[in-house]
Amino acid sequence: MGSIRLRTPGKINWTLEVIGRRRDGYHDVRMLMQSVSLFDQITLSDRASGITVVSDSKDIPLGEGNIAYRAADLIKRYSKRESGVE
Length: 86
Known about the structure:
This protein is α+β, with helices and mostly antiparallel strands. The chain has one helix and three strands, in the order ββαβ. A three-stranded antiparallel sheet has the order 1-2-3, with no helix packed on it.
């Protein structure tokens, strides 16, 4: 695969109401969103093993606390993929 670069669009939550907590620890929410012209750029690259999250922001968690890390981990387990991703 090499690498893939994606642009993910930004949004503003005009309203955000937490209406419940799910058994998996996430929350059910009701919200009104507006798309904006800002975006994040995400690059996925093959690695021999493991999952590595890299960011230019000190405010973004780089380990298992990062939702992208958790998504990659689920995909690896579901697909039984042995190689990794950065």
